[in-house]
């Protein structure tokens, strides 16, 4: 079985005066931390690589990307890490929950007008945004905006604009 590595191609952004701007915290990331995703079938281990900022000491980082595949991990969470035999940092658990919420949006076609509309709508609600591809995007929002964002996402899904999911599977 081969390993698959899914590293993010874009930086996390926010909407500022109608323009996407990289989040300064994301630009300060200095390491990549790898998370082993649950195995499904014979596909081998899949790893998601998220940029992070090393914290005081060598055993913790703060996530500075929006998880596209990992559940129950969010932008700003502090994560305990260990170095693998190859030297890469591997997440071993969450040390501190940022209380942010992650949502993922899947677009059937991913055309530029549709993407722009989603970025404007949810960026305008205060969400951080990150794209993995023209069809997969992720949002991060603070707890006080999570219900309004979830309601807007549910409406968008019912209208057939996209499919979404929450990255939070566990309750606190």
Provide key terms for this protein.
single chain; 172 residues; alpha+beta; Alpha-Beta Plaits; 2 domains; five-stranded mixed barrel; four-stranded antiparallel beta sheet; 3 helices; 19% helix
Strand runs, count? 12
Structural class: alpha+beta
Helical content, roughly? 10-25%
Instruction: Describe the sheet with the most strands.
Output: 5 strands, mixed, barrel
The structural domain count equals 2
Taking all residues together, what is the mean pLDDT? 91
SSE order: EEEHEEEEEEHEEHE
Number of H/I helices: 3
Radius of gyration: 16 Å
* Strands in their spatial order, largest beta sheet: 4-5-6-7-8
Distance between the termini: 35 Å
Report the uncertain regions: none
Strand content: 35-45%
Report on the architecture of this protein:
The chain has helices at 24-27, 112-123, 143-158; strands spanning 4-7, 13-16, 19-22, 31-36, 46-54, 60-63, 78-83, 89-96, 101-106, 128-131, 136-141, 163-166. The protein has two domains: 4-96, no CATH class; 101-166, Alpha-Beta Plaits (2-Layer Sandwich), CATH 3.30.70.330. The chain is an alpha+beta fold and 172 residues long. The chain has three helices and twelve strands. The strands form three sheets. A five-stranded mixed barrel has the order 4-5-6-7-8. The model has no long low-confidence stretch (mean pLDDT 91).
